[in-house]
Amino acid sequence: MSERSSIVQEQSLTLLGQKVHFWKGGSGPALLLLHAAWGDAEMSWSGVWDRLSRSYTVIAPDLPGFGQSEKLSTPTLSGMATMLKELLGALHLDRVTVVGNSFGAGAAIKFENDHPQMVSHLVLVDGGYMPIIPGFMRKLISLPGVNQGFRALIRNATFSRKTLNRSFANPPKLPAGFLEKIEQNTMAYSRISFDTIMNHSSLLTKPTAPTLLIWGAEDGLSTLKQADAIQKWIPEARLITIDGAGHMPQVEKPEEFVAAVMGK
Questions:
Q1: φ and ψ at 135, to 5 degrees?
Q2: Residue 159 included in any domain
């Protein structure tokens, strides 16, 4: 464990017959952190979770198939939402603020859609849009001759070094080995995120919980145009942009990110 993880400690539980690995620490209202598809909870949140744990009880799970959590037999947002409900129940938490980054933002909205009584506030970080692939397209993509090529195309569009470089404001200033760690997990994590989107067949509904959007101003993957589109979908949502940050502002600008989450 890294030195900066002194307050938030890793734990694991078996829920619905599967191992769920997560990090927990702090005191105060519960704050559920959902990571991006590029890595696990530690990679996404370890730079901010100690500071957040001074005001919140932080829970940061590895989503199914990521990090040390076992994967679902069929990756779906509904399955992830069910796992999160079971985890919070096991921890005796019945109401949380949910913070989701990128892919995790989609999981956060689905959790709020399925279990609105458990979500007090929603924070979407450089994400929130989950595409629906039409049925005929899913059938085409599922063909053996097409599937592998399409997966390679999606991997290149979301995990390549070129994509990563334009997703951050200043890649050379990222933590040592950060981009290399993303690349090491490309095959496994791109497969889970791809399969989850392939199995996603119904539109997410507009959240009813108070919603905050936090966006890296220099995000070249999910640009501010996408933030504007989400804000039009959720007109009541407030948007905070963080200069000098890209797709993971909690990594590039941790102090500004924590201040935004805490409403300062």
A1: -55, -45
A2: no
pLDDT at residue 144 greater than cutoff 90: no
Pick left, alpha or beta for residue 244 (phi over 0 → left; psi -120 to 50 → alpha; otherwise beta).
left
pLDDT at 114 exceeding the cut of 50 = yes
Total domains present in the chain: 1
Contacts of residue 134, Cβ cutoff 8 Å, sequence gap at least 6? none
Q: Are 161 and 174 in contact (CB under 8 A)?
A: no
Of the chain, the end-to-end C-alpha distance in Å amounts to 30
Whether the model clears a pTM of 0.85, i.e. scores above it, the answer is yes
- Is residue 233 domain-resident? yes
| CATH code of residue 213 | 3.40.50.1820
User: Distance between CA 154 and CA 173 in Å, rounded?
Assistant: 26
Question: How many CA atoms lie less than 13 Å away from 40 in the CB half-sphere?
Answer: 20
Q: Give residues with Cβ within 8 angstroms of 261, minimum separation 6.
A: 31, 52, 99, 123, 212, 214
